[in-house]
């Protein structure tokens, strides 16, 4: 007799990248847009705020996540204009930055709240390379003004840590939490 299907996670995010990663891992989920306004602050705080804002649906776990880019003590959010994107990329060129994600996995009975850090080093970038990337418009809506899973991969020299964290969801951390909290239910543990 086949095991019953795993209950769908509630994803407190409208991010297409987070949906793609959950689909890649074959974790069932339903999306509920969070009713949480991000202000400046810690991505862990934002992840927890997003998860709590959607409430609970039966006993199904709720997943919240937030990601930011930090370099030299400066937080790089999403660029508003092409000029902002250029300035961010020029500032990150030839340097190592951290992609920091907060992840919150909640049920009515418990909360798991964690921080994941991946170090990314950009190669030195010429003005032409920056202009080419900015013209692609791939930077729009991306922390640090780049998307590593696309043309942004051409900016990167080295990565230390969870690649999928840079894409938008610390997948290794999530898999570990699901294996610990729900052994075998989601196919892990």
SSE layout and pairings?
Layout: E1 9-11, H1 16-24, E2 29-31, H2 43-53, E3 62-71, E4 74-76, H3 82-92, E5 96-106, E6 111-122, H4 127-136, E7 156-160, H5 163-167, H6 171-181
Parallel strand pairs: 1-2, 1-3
Antiparallel strand pairs: 3-4, 3-5, 5-6, 6-7
Helix pairs in contact: 3-4
Instruction: Summarize the main sheet.
Output: 7 strands, mixed
State the CATH architecture: Alpha-Beta Complex
Coarse morphology: elongated
Task: Tally the structural domains.
Answer: 1
Q: Which residue ranges are poorly predicted, with pLDDT under 50 across at least 5 consecutive positions?
A: none
**Share in β-strands:** 15-25%
Q: According to CATH, what is the class?
A: Alpha Beta
The end-to-end distance, rounded to whole angstroms, is: 20 Å
Name the average pLDDT: 95
CATH topology: Maf protein
Beta strand count: 7
Helix-strand string: EHEHEEHEEHEHH
Report the total helices.
Answer: 6
Structural class: alpha/beta
Structure description:
With 189 residues, the chain is of the alpha/beta class. It is 30% helix and 25% strand. The protein has helices at 16-24, 43-53, 82-92, 127-136, 163-167, 171-181, and strands at 9-11, 29-31, 62-71, 74-76, 96-106, 111-122, 156-160. Strands 1, 2, 3, 4, 5, 6 and 7 form a 7-stranded mixed sheet that branches. A hairpin with a 2-residue loop joins strand 3 and strand 4 (74-76). It is elongated and about 60 Å long. The mean pLDDT is 95.
């Amino acid at each position: 007799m086949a095991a019953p299907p795993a209950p769908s996670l509630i994803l407190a995010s409208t991010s297409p990248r987070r949906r793609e990663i959950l689909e890649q891992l074959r974790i069932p989920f339903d999306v509920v847009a969070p009713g949480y306004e991000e202000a400046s602050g810690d991505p862990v705080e934002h992840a927890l705020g997003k998860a709590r804002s959607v409430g609970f649906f039966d006993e199904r776990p709720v997943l919240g996540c937030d990601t930011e880019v930090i370099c030299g003590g400066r937080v790089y959010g999403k660029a508003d204009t092409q000029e902002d994107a250029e300035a961010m990329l020029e500032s990150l060129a030839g340097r190592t930055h951290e992609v920091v994600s907060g992840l919150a996995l909640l049920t009515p009975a418990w909360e798991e709240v964690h921080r994941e850090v991946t170090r990314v080093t950009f190669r030195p970038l010429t003005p032409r390379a920056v202009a080419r990337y900015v013209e692609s418009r791939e930077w729009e809506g991306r922390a640090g003004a780049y998307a590593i899973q696309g043309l942004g991969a051409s900016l990167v020299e080295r990565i230390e840590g969870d690649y999928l964290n840079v894409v938008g969801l610390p997948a290794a951390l999530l898999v570990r939490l699901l294996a610990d909290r729900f052994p075998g239910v989601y196919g892990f543990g």
